[in-house]
Amino acid sequence: MTRRIVRTISQLAAAALVAFLIIFFLDRNFRLLPNAVHEYMPQHHHGSVVTDITITTCSTINLFSSCKLDPETWHRVEKNLYLDKSWVSSAYVHVQRKKEEDLTSDDKVVIGVTVGRIDPSTGAKGHANEKWESRSAGLWVLRSSKATASDSKKAVTAVDILFGDDAVEARDGWELQNTPLLLAVGTDIPSAHITVRQGTQADPIRPQPRVNDNGKFKIMQLADLHLSTGVGHCRDAVPDEYEGGACMADLRTLDFVSKLLDDEKPDLVVLSGDQVNGDTAPDAQSAIFKYAQLLIKRKIPYVSIFGNHDDEGSLPRPGQMAMIEQLPYSLSVAGPDDIDGVGNYYIEVLAQGTSKHSALTVYLLDSHSYSPDERQWSGYDWIKKNQIDWFRQTSEGLKKKHKEYTHIHMDIAFIHIPLPEYRDVDSPYVGEWREGVTAPKYNSGFRDALVEQGVVMVSCGHDHANEYCMLSSNAESKKPELWMCYGGGAGFGGYGGYGNFVRRVRFFDIDMNEARITTYKRLEYGDTASRIDQQIIVDGGNVKAAREHN
Question: b/e for 361-388, b at 16 or more Cβ within 10 A?
Answer without folding.
Answer: bbbbbbbbbebeeeeeeeebbbbbeebb
